[in-house]
Amino acid sequence: MNAPEKNEVQDTATGLPARRAAIRLLDAVLKRGETLDKAGSYALSGLSSPADKAFARAIAGETLRWLVDIDALIDGATKKRLDDNTKARSILRIMLAQALRLETPPHAVIASALPLLTGGQRRLAHGVFSALLKQDASLPAAPTLPKNVQARWGERAGAIAMGLTQPPPLDLQLKDTGQTAAQAKAMGAVSLAPGHLRLPRGTPVDRLPGFEEGAWWVQDLAASLPASLLGPGDGRRVLDLCAAPGGKTLQLAAAGWQVTALDISEKRLERLRENLLRTGLEAEIVVADALTYTPAKPFDAILLDAPCTATGTCRRHPDVLHRIGEEELAQTTTLQAALLRRAISWLPEGGTLVYAVCSLEEEEGAAQALKVALDPLPISGAQLRAGLEYTPEGWLRTDPGMLSEHGGLDGFFVARWRK
Hints:
Elements (H helix, E strand, L loop, with lengths): L15 H17 L3 H8 L6 H16 L1 H10 L10 H14 L5 H8 L5 H16 L12 H7 L3 H6 L7 E5 L5 H8 L8 E4 L16 E3 L6 H4 L8 E5 L5 H8 L3 E6 L6 H10 L4 E4 L13 E5 L14 H4 L2 H20 L6 E6 L8 H4 L5 E2 L12 E2 L5 E3 L13 E7 L1
Parallel strand pairs: 4-5, 4-7, 5-6, 7-8
Antiparallel strand pairs: 1-2, 1-3, 8-12, 9-12, 10-11, 11-12
Helix pairs in contact: 1-2, 1-3, 3-5, 4-5, 5-6, 5-7
């Protein structure tokens, strides 16, 4: 068994509140379609200990990551299938996630989870859990994806699933890419590309060398690729459209671009303001709706990291495996098409457009790119780290199954054109 969060196993005296919070997180995702991040603002509010909050998130995350396989174990051990909405199934789910993924001792699982049930449901859960342990129940090598997800991702689904076995490591993006080797040595990090550093999950960010000096910021390797495809700025103007939380703005500013960072959310831009101050980089921040905003003059380049279903972040946000469907896709693709039209209208002749989504859905990637009537600027293998893919059309597509020997990366679609 692997234990991505085993250092956060709680003792039986303090573990009950964390289990209650984990159930609240799961109910928010599976019953109300909320994100784990949104649910965490209230589901974890009763927990005072950071360790308890982290453990509740770990239980919920691993349960969602392996939900199909955990449910299969439960169904194989019951004569009559438990309804999805029964509390007994919910409790059994978190019990098995703890025992099979978080390496929580069985006695601690039983003592801290069964008090959440009463009467016959308590006896049922105890019996099913004990029977499965006696049978040496185990999970497969990779999570089984929900059927609708498998259908959408097609032949890529198996490889993507292999990339979901563990939560992701910590990625940093350096302000000065020339310091990659020196910073990697100083931190004991692995570098997979110029300006990139990778550290083990759980590393305290604010204690790392260079934090106070603003030498880097947290950014997944895949998320750093779209901005890198614009190259050096040399003082030219670029619009980072839908900029929050701001990693790409920082990249562009560090590369010498004169950046305007636009986003509709003042709250989500707070992190960008903090990071600009910490790193000493500069950008103009505009809080506006891109569908009504009009720039004073055209930009030399525009980076549109469009709002999307974010299914490419399923390593760190396994809730997307269970709450994204046709309705959500219809909403995001309509918005993406409108944003692309706006962005194209703000480019002068010779201007460059980069479109990116952290999505694994064809509708949000290739289908959108095919509608753009600009001259393609194909992305070539020479511009990518070994192990990443560019399509025959010159688009970039990453998924969690790539670079798995190094800890993987998020799923992204990126395309580039010149007007």
